[in-house]
Automatic annotation (TrEMBL):
The keyword Nucleotidyltransferase does not apply. Acetyl-CoA carboxylase is a heterohexamer of biotin carboxyl carrier protein, biotin carboxylase and the two subunits of carboxyl transferase in a 2:2 complex. It comes from the Bacteria. This protein is a component of the acetyl coenzyme A carboxylase complex; first, biotin carboxylase catalyzes the carboxylation of the carrier protein and then the transcarboxylase transfers the carboxyl group to form malonyl-CoA. Keywords: ATP-binding, Biotin, Fatty acid biosynthesis, Fatty acid metabolism, Ligase, Lipid biosynthesis, Lipid metabolism, Magnesium, Metal-binding, Nucleotide-binding. It catalyses: N(6)-biotinyl-L-lysyl-[protein] + hydrogencarbonate + ATP = N(6)-carboxybiotinyl-L-lysyl-[protein] + ADP + phosphate + H(+). Residues 120-317 form the ATP-grasp domain. This is Biotin carboxylase. One of its GO terms (molecular function) is biotin carboxylase activity. Pfam families: Biotin_carb_C (PF02785), Biotin_carb_N (PF00289), CPSase_L_D2 (PF02786). It comes from Aminicella lysinilytica.
């Protein structure tokens, strides 16, 4: 059994993990960077250790300092949360080398699933549908062109070690592939230290559907249903919901079984997510596996009643899953809006600064995951997300109505946020019909901004500094 856990993260996810550890009677250690001495996660943990300067490379990405903090405080486990080192195999190995339980999958599994080309090959062998593309990496631009012309344009030239939209370029013809190969390879080398690329068919404006996986050390693997994460801006999710609206039970069952096969093929342990894209004809294709806890996991928790972080702690302690697949029940509907400190009129540029006034919503069916408070500073060094507002309802419409109320009840002054845009999306016809896809924001953003400005919202909120 675990005894003492270091949380190698910050913000709302660090707060969430610390709370779950406290509920499980586990001691906690927070780490923080200089300037974050009064961050909420440092105040909540039993101990807090400064691990370096404010730049991520000096602190939350500094493996040696984090391991030293865990060893010196007598921890026996590290929870990486999401982002930062959560999918870093070197970090997982460093934990293992220092007799620290990494609360996540094994380092070799992270490597295997982090290489998109190798993961595609594994999924094909496991009978999981993948997007048509190259068999393994392509080593020259001409080889990329040959693949593109076999599968047909448009295509994506993608980094094998990529993620978050980095090292990825669209190409619509031969010249585009040659240009994309050069640009994507250079970006991938810069961002990931690995310029290897592969080519796959571009499914235009698909739905982004993902399945939550839990797997223990005894070989038990289950899924907790799906989430629709198609409302995105620059490949970053803004709104998520569970279950996906308009899905047939047949499709849900097939995709869930494919997700479980994918995790089994990888020899996976702990929480993870199998991500698919789906076209207009309900054809679905594996795109990647996130070998960590997802930002949007709360919507799954709210419709299943399963505490995913608690299950992570159980799995890391060597215990079996607390439920079987037949025990999983989806009840009602849940939505999540990721509120980010960004200026929507400056192409969603990060908007760091001081929060002068803050009020979060409450009431039946409303949950807020956040680490900000009145007077706190939003750092320019880290991700701009400052809160997640989650609502539930017996039906999707009830959850939507509750989200409208929750967002309108939320007040954040001092920094610009995405909140007004997400509020207006709750009234969008395409969103209400559930017919939206990953092209939604590109298609509707200017319309939403015009409506917001016409209502006087720009002066009221987004000009605040």
């Amino acid at each position: 059994m675990l005894r003492k856990v270091l949380v190698a993260n910050r913000g709302e996810i660090a707060v969430r993990i610390i709370r779950e550890c406290m509920d499980a009677s586990l001691e906690t250690v927070a780490v923080y960077s200089k300037g974050e001495e009064d961050a909420l996660h440092t105040l909540m943990a039993g101990e807090a250790v400064c691990i370096g300067g404010p730049r991520p490379a000096d602190s939350y990405l500094n493996i040696d300092n984090i391991i030293s903090a865990a060893v010196n405080t007598g921890c026996d486990a590290i929870h990486p949360g999401f982002g930062f080192l959560s999918e870093n195999s070197d970090f997982a190995r460093a934990c293992e080398d220092n007799d620290l339980k990494f609360i996540g999958p094994a380092a070799d599994v992270i490597d295997m699933m982090g290489n998109k080309s190798a993961a595609r090959d594994m999924m094909k062998r496991a009978g999981v549908p993948v997007v048509p593309g190259s068999d393994g990496p392509v080593t020259t631009a001409e080889e990329a062109v040959d693949v593109a012309e076999q599968i047909g344009y448009p295509v994506l030239v993608k980094a094998s070690a990529g993620g978050g939209g980095r090292g990825m370029r669209r190409a619509d013809d031969r010249e585009g592939v040659i240009r994309a190969y050069s640009e994507a390879s250079a970006e991938a080398e810069s961002c990931f230290g690995n310029g290897e690329l592969y080519v796959e068919k571009l499914v235009e404006d698909p739905r982004h559907i993902e399945f939550q996986i839990l797997a223990d050390s005894q070989g038990n693997v289950i899924h907790l249903g799906e989430r629709n994460c198609s409302i995105q801006r620059r490949n970053q999710k803004m709104i998520e919901e569970a279950p996906a609206f308009g899905f047939s039970d047949q499709i849900r069952k097939k995709m869930g079984a494919a997700a479980v096969r994918a995790a089994e093929a990888a020899g996976y342990e702990n929480a993870g997510t199998i991500e698919f894209i789906m076209d207009d004809e309900d054809n679905y294709y594996f795109i990647e596996m996130n070998t960590r806890l997802q930002v949007e996991h709360p919507v799954t928790e709210m419709v299943t009643g399963v505490n995913i972080v608690n299950e992570q702690l159980r799995i890391a302690s060597g215990l079996p899953l607390s439920l079987k697949q037949e025990d999983v029940r989806i009840s009602g509907h849940a939505l999540e809006c990721r509120i980010a400190a960004e200026d929507v009129y400056r192409n969603f540029a990060p908007c760091p600064g001081r929060i002068d006034f803050l009020h979060f919503p409450a009431g039946n069916g409303v949950r807020v995951d956040s680490a900000v408070y009145n007077g706190c500073e939003i750092s320019p060094y880290y991700d701009s997300m400052i809160a997640k507002v989650i609502t539930t309802g017996g039906t999707r419409l009830e959850a939507v109505r509750r989200m409208r109320r929750a967002l309108e009840e939320t007040a954040i002054e001092g920094v610009s946020t995405t909140l007004p845009i997400q509020d207006l999306i709750m009234y969008s016809r395409d969103f209400l019909r559930g017919t939206y896809n990953t092209g939604y924001m590109e298609k509707h953003l200017q319309e939403i901004l015009d409506i917001y400005e016409a209502a006087g919202g720009r002066n009221e909120s987004t000009d605040r500094k």
